[in-house]
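Supplementary Methods, section 5.1.

A reviewer requested that the exact input to the structure prediction be made available. We therefore reproduce it here, unchanged from the version used in the analyses.
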Amino acid sequence: MERAAERLRPLPAPAADAPEIYYLSGHRFAYQTAFCAGSFGWHAGQAMRVVVVDDGTLTNTQIQLFHRVLAGLRLIGQAEVMDSLETRLPVRKYPELRRRRLVYPHLRKLTDIHALGESWKLVLDSDMLFHNKPNFLIQWLTAPERPCHMVDRADAYGYSLHLLHRLSGGKLAHRVNVGVCGLNSGGIDWDKLEYWCRQMIACEGTHYLMEQALVAMSIVGKQCAVAPADQYMVAPSREEAERPTAVLHHYTAESKAWYFRFAWRHVAENLAS
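The structure derived from this sequence is encoded cell-by-cell as follows.
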C-alpha cells in the first residue's frame, strides 16, 4: 500500500472557493492520508481543497507525495501550528490541553486543527477509504450549519458515562464516532475542554478514546448531521471490505486486517497512474 501510494494519479486542481477537508498526518500515516484524500476526490466527482496539518514528523519525500497527488494542497507546518496554539491556546491558560497534545496525538485533531481559525472544518481520519460518491459530506461541506459525525458500533468513549454526563451537564449521544468530524472552530469552548480534560484524568486516568469523548461532550444538546451508518461504516466486515457497497469505510479494530489486505486495492485500481 505504501508503494502504491507513490503511483496514485494526481487529482484535478480545485477551484479557489472549493470546500476544504482537513487531515492531521505524519510519517506513519502519510500514505493512508493520500489514499483517503485521493479516494474522496475520485468519488466526489469534484475537486476539494485538501489541508494537511503536519504532526511534526512528515518527511520531505512524503510532502512531495502530497503535493504531487493532491493538487492545490495546503500544508500547515509545525511553525504555523505553534503560532496558532500560542495565540488561541496559550500554555498559561490551557496547561492540560497543551501537555496532553504532546503525549496523546489524537488530541491534536482538536487543538492543532481548530486553533487555526474560527471557520467550520471537516476533519477526516486517514485510516478510511471512500468507495462511492459521498453525497452526505458534499452536502454538508456546501453549507455547514451543525456538527457532523459518524455512527460507531457501540459507545466508545473510554470513560464512564456517569462521569461524562456529570462533567458535560447532559446526556451524550450514543455511538458518536469522529473518523468524520465537522465542527465550528469558533464555537469550541476551550475553557470547558481544559476543565474536562483535567477532571477526566484526575477521576479515571488517561485513555486512547479521550478525544472522541471530548467531541461527544462538546456536542451535547446540539442538533447534528449524522452520517448514515449503513453508508458510512465503522469496522466493515471482511465481505464488505472485499466487495464494497458502502460510501465510506472506517477501518478500526479487526477491520484493519481487511484494510491492508483488500480494501486499498479498490482505490489503487481507480487511481493508478
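The first strand starts at residue 20 and ends at 25. These observations are discussed further in the main text.
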